[in-house]
Amino acid sequence: MKREKLFVTNKRHLKIKIPTSIFVLIIVITVSIISILANVIRDKNIILKNKAEIVSKEMNGGEKLDLQSALIKELYNKVFDKRDFEIGSLIYPNLDKIIIKEMDINSKMKLVMGNMESKAFANSDCESNKEKTVNYNNESFTCLMGEGNYILLDKVQNKYLELYGSLDGFIKDSIIDTNLNEIYVYGINATGVEGYYKYKSGGRGSLLYSNTRKLVDAVLVDNVISITENIVNIDAVGTKYEENVTYTFKKEKNLSYTYYSRIRNKL
Question: Could you tell me if 184 and 196 are in contact, meaning their C-beta atoms sit under 8 angstroms apart?
Answer without folding.
Answer: yes
